[in-house]
Amino acid sequence: MTQTDPSDMSQGGIAFAKLMAAIEAGDFQPGDRLREVEVAERLGLSRTPIREALRRLEAENIIEHRPRIGAVIRTLSRTEVVELYEMRLVLERTAAQMAAKHAMQAEVDALVTINKKIAQASDTPSKAAAINQQFHRAIYLAARNRFLLESARGLNNALLLLGPTTLADAERIKTVVAQHADIIDAISAGNIEAAGAAAEAHLQTSLRHRLSVMTS
Question: Disulfide: which of 17, 29, 46, 93 matches 196 by Cβ 3.0-4.6 Å?
Answer without folding.
Answer: 93
